[in-house]
Specification:
The complex is a heterodimer of chains A (about 100) and B (about 120). Chain A has one helix and five strands. Chain A is mainly beta and about 100 residues long. Chain A is elongated. With about 120 residues, chain B is of the alpha+beta class. Chain B is about 30% helix and about 35% strand. Classes of the chains: A mainly beta (about 100), B alpha+beta (about 120). Chains A and B meet through helix 1 and strand 5 of A and strand 2, strand 3 and strand 4 of B. Strand 5 of chain A pairs antiparallel with strand 4 of chain B, so a sheet runs across the interface. Chain B: It is found in: Cytoplasm; Nucleus. Chain B: Its main location: cytoplasm.
Chain lengths: ~100, ~120
C-alpha cells in the first residue's frame, strides 16, 4: 500500500530540473521579470515547460527610461496596473523568483 | 583541427618561438584543446560538473547574474541560489531561487575565487 505523498513530491532519484523547482512555487506569490522592461508580481496558478503561466492578482510594472534633452539625465518612470487573472506567454519570460524582499 | 595545425598557425612551427608568459599561455591553451578533444560530449559533461559551483550567467540582454548553480537542463534553463543581478552596477539582490529561461542565456561561466 502506497504511503500518501504530497502532490509536489515525485519518486525520482535524478537531479531535479529547474522546472521541478518552479513547481514548488505553485500557489505562491512570485516575481517574474519579462522582456521589454516589464515585471509581474502575482500568484502562480499554473505553468508549463514553455513557462507559459497563469497568474492571479497580478501587478504589472512597466519601466521606461526617458532622457532629458538638455541635461541628458536618465529619468526612470514606471507604470503599474493591476490585473485579476493573466495568461503570460512563455517566450517573454526572462526570470522567475520568489517576491523580492525590499532591498 | 589538430593541435599541430594550431601550433603552426600560431607561428611556433618554423622560425618563430614564443618565450616567457606568451609561451605558457599558449601551452595552457593547447593542453585544454587536447583535453577537450579527448573527452566526448564536453558541453553536457561541463554542465554536470559545474552544478553546485558559483557561476556567472550572462543573458542576451547584457544583464549579469552571479550565484550558486542549483540545477540546469538541456535548454539551459537555470536555477540559481543566492543570486545577484548586475546591470552596469549592482541592481537587485535575490535570495532563494531564481529561475532563468534558457533562451535568454548567452553563457554560463564558473567564477574564479579572485573577484
Amino acid at each position: 500500500m502506497q504511503t500518501s505523498r504530497s502532490k509536489k513530491q515525485q519518486t525520482t532519484n535524478t537531479v531535479e530540473e529547474p522546472l521541478d523547482l518552479i513547481r514548488l512555487s505553485l500557489d505562491e506569490r512570485i516575481y517574474v521579470k519579462m522582456r521589454n522592461d516589464r515585471e509581474l508580481r502575482g500568484r502562480l496558478h499554473a505553468y508549463d515547460q514553455h513557462l507559459n503561466m497563469i497568474l492571479g492578482d497580478v501587478e504589472e510594472t512597466v519601466t521606461t527610461i526617458e532622457i532629458d534633452e538638455e541635461t541628458y539625465e536618465e529619468i526612470y518612470k514606471s507604470t503599474k496596473r493591476n490585473i485579476p487573472m493573466l495568461f503570460v506567454r512563455g517566450d517573454g519570460v526572462v526570470l522567475v523568483a520568489p517576491p523580492l524582499r525590499v532591498g | 583541427m589538430c593541435w599541430q595545425e594550431l601550433w603552426e598557425r600560431r607561428g611556433c612551427g618554423s622560425g618563430g618561438y614564443y618565450t616567457g608568459g606568451g609561451r605558457q599561455r599558449l601551452d595552457r591553451f593547447l593542453i585544454r584543446i587536447v583535453k577537450m578533444s579527448l573527452r566526448k560530449q564536453t558541453p553536457s559533461d561541463f554542465l554536470k560538473q559545474i552544478i553546485g559551483r558559483p557561476v556567472v550567467v550572462k543573458l542576451n540582454s547584457g544583464v549579469d547574474y552571479r550565484g550558486v548553480l542549483a540545477c540546469l537542463d538541456g535548454y539551459m534553463n537555470i536555477a540559481l541560489e543566492q543570486t545577484e543581478e548586475y546591470v552596469n552596477g549592482q541592481l537587485k539582490n535575490k535570495y532563494g531561487d531564481a529561475f532563468i529561461r534558457g533562451n535568454n542565456v548567452l553563457y554560463i561561466s564558473t567564477q574564479k575565487r579572485r573577484m
